[in-house]
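Working notes for the structural subgroup meeting. M.R. asked for a predicted model of this chain before we commit to crystallization trials. I am recording the input and output together here so anyone reviewing the notebook later can reproduce the run.

Input as submitted:
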Amino acid sequence: MSITIDDVKKLAILSRLEFTDDEIKKFVSDLEATLKQVEAINKVDVSNVDLIEDTIDADTDLRRDVVIPSLKASEIVSNAPEKEDGAFLVPVTVVED
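Returned structure, recorded in token form:
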């Protein structure tokens, strides 16, 4: 899969970001390099690896999963360009092949 200048421009529009032509060209190069690395990782044969047994020791003490928000939801939504009832209001996005 290759990334084009138009792909990066489309992502910038969807992300509400603005870039110079030089920045867009650099992103094309960077994204293509990243995709090549992902393709290489996908080629690694892990069919004989039992990930659960190989990564978690039965004697490991696990910490309790506690969610501690760093910001109040109202503070986060206050930065949104459009909001409604305490939630982000975003345009409908249609993805075409």
